[in-house]
């Protein structure tokens, strides 16, 4: 019921942000559409276009729908995926809370912490990949709890006809595998959850060896998924995991473990309010204590594996990755589980505590707050849109056979913008075009009529660096237009 309500509400909110023109305001939202589209719409279409930096599942799900121009220009098909994911995550969060507490009221109140957060609501209204990550990880964790201890579910379920069941290894394994193919945050969550499962089985009397052997049947699926992606990344990009070279190390937390951790803490508090964070933390601590002291409730600890989603952001900040509030949004899911558990922990005070939590949610959160941190961050690039449109106008209508050389790593969002001027991805020569791209880096004249260079963001893209270090790269081209750090060069023709 909560999942259905979340789907309906999420669709209404998505329409609201579409009317405000914010659906594609985040540059990564446009970038994801381009990667999905280029699998078919490309100079060199094929599986190599799936990419090797972003994980493939979101783009594979959207690869066919986004070939429809209307879906590509508006992002509607990708937003539909986000809304469904939002609904699934809501249902999974509520199920976990009810399983841990036996309280439907606490499940409702805890789900509200997630559902009414304006940052979560905005992301589920966009083609971003965080909603799918949250859905798959929460469902996988819920399944693993049931797999570890089906009796625990029976004891706490409010559904009187809830049957005894055993979730198959393959079902849980596939859920984690799909999560691991969505975003990197799922990798530490998977490792932590499976380790917690070994602990749960051990607490129930199994030896560590037999417990590990049992969990291995699940672990095989995400392990194969990660290994397969690593091989794919090696074939396409030449590296097992492409983790460097796409950002400038400018975070103050560079090399500082504690500062990076404090940035994550500050981000979560900014997203949902200090009071909700403390309630969520108290509930998470209660889950840990409950699982350690009560063997019959040991499976509860699996829910805390969602905290491991912070590991990727923490590692990135330590490496100097610029701070992004978006990386903390998935942690709202575990905050909601912790808060709901805190509300339902005391049997005699559940109703009062659940109502109190709902009151705090209403006080702290403004679901359609246009000044919410995630909504604000998504609009950083918005002022540059009009300036880039003038550069597009310099090219004119997409001429048949005339290609535009541009780095998709820095201008993927711009390529999607040009769809409004009826440009297709195949009009661009980019890194995904393999040997043709490499040959054009040596001498672009035989291949492209136009060259687009990002000269400003992140210190300039790879073409900007090439033009500075090897000025002959632009021989035979004339600078004809620029705006918002974007420079356009046109090939000179001999008279």
Please give a structural write-up:
The structure is a single chain. The chain is mainly α and 495 residues long. It has two domains: 2-23 and 75-378, no CATH class; 382-491. It is 58% helix and 4% strand. It contains 22 helices and five strands. A five-stranded mixed beta sheet has the order 2-1-3-5-4. Helix 20 (408-417) links the parallel strand 1 (404-405) and strand 2 (428-429). It starts with a helix and ends with a strand. Mean pLDDT is 91; it is low at 159-164.
Shape: elongated
Mean pLDDT: 91
Low-confidence stretches: 159-164
What percent of the residues sit in helical stretches (DSSP H or I)? 55-70%
In a nutshell, what does this entry contain?
Helix 5 (76-101) crosses helix 9 (150-156), helix 8 (130-148) crosses helix 9 and helix 8 (130-148) packs antiparallel against helix 10. 58% of the residues lie in helices and 4% in strands. The chain is built from 22 helices and 5 strands.
Layout of strands and helices, then pairs:
Elements lengths: L1 H18 L7 H11 L19 H6 L6 H6 L1 H26 L2 H12 L2 H6 L6 H19 L1 H7 L12 H12 L5 H18 L4 H30 L19 H16 L1 H20 L16 H9 L12 H14 L5 H15 L8 H6 L6 H11 L8 E2 L2 H10 L10 E2 L5 H8 L7 E5 L7 H8 L7 E7 L2 E6 L4
Parallel strand pairs: 1-2, 1-3
Antiparallel strand pairs: 3-5, 4-5
Helix pairs in contact: 1-5, 2-20, 5-6, 5-8, 5-9, 5-16, 6-16, 6-17, 8-9, 8-10, 8-11, 10-12, 11-12, 13-14, 13-15, 14-16, 16-17
């Amino acid at each position: 019921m909560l999942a259905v309500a979340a789907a309906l509400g999420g669709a209404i909110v998505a329409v609201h942000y579409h009317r405000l023109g914010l659906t594609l305001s985040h540059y990564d939202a446009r970038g994801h559409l381009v990667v999905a589209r280029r699998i078919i719409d490309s100079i060199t279409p094929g599986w190599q276009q799936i990419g090797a930096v972003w994980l493939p599942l979101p783009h594979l799900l959207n690869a066919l729908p986004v070939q429809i121009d209307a879906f590509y220009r508006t992002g509607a098909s990708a937003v539909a995926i986000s809304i469904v994911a939002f609904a699934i995550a809501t249902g999974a969060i509520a199920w976990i809370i009810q399983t841990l507490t036996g309280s439907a009221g606490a499940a409702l109140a805890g789900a509200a912490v997630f559902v009414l957060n304006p940052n979560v609501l905005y992301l589920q209204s966009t083609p971003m990949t965080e909603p799918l990550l949250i859905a798959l990880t929460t469902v996988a964790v819920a399944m693993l709890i049931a797999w570890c201890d089906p009796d625990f579910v029976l004891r706490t379920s409010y559904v009187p006809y809830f049957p005894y069941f055993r979730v198959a290894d393959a079902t849980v394994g596939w859920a984690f595998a799909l999560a691991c193919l969505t975003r990197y945050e799922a990798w530490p969550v998977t490792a932590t959850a499976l380790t917690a499962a070994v602990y749960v089985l051990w607490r129930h009397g199994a030896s560590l060896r037999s417990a590990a052997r049992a969990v291995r049947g699940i672990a095989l699926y995400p392990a194969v998924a990660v290994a397969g992606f690593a091989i794919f990344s090696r074939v396409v990009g030449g590296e097992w995991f492409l983790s460097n070279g796409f950002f400038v190390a400018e975070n103050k937390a560079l090399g500082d473990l504690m500062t990076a951790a404090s940035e994550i803490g500050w981000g979560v508090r900014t997203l949902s309010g200090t009071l909700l964070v403390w309630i969520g933390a108290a509930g998470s601590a209660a889950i840990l204590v409950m699982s350690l002291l009560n063997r019959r409730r040991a499976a509860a600890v699996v829910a805390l594996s969602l905290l491991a989603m912070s590991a990727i952001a923490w590692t990135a900040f330590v490496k100097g990755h610029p701070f992004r509030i978006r990386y903390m949004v998935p942690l709202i899911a575990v905050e909601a589980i912790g808060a709901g558990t805190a509300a339902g922990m005391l049997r005699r005070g559940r109703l009062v505590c659940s109502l109190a939590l709902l009151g705090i949610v209403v006080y702290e959160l403004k679901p359609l707050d246009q000044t919410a941190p995630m909504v604000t961050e998504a609009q950083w690039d918005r002022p540059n849109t009009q300036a880039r449109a003038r550069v597009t106008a310099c090219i004119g209508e997409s001429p048949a056979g005339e290609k535009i050389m541009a780095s998709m790593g820095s201008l993927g969002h711009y390529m999607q913008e040009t769809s409004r001027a009826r440009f297709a991805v195949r009009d661009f020569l980019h890194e995904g075009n393999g040997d043709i791209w490499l040959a054009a880096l040596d001498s672009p004249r035989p291949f492209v009529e136009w060259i687009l260079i990002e000269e400003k963001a992140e210190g300039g893209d790879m073409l900007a660096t090439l033009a500075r270090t090897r000025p002959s790269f632009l021989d035979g081209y004339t600078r004809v237009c620029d705006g918002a750090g974007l420079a356009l060069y046109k090939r000179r023709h001999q008279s």
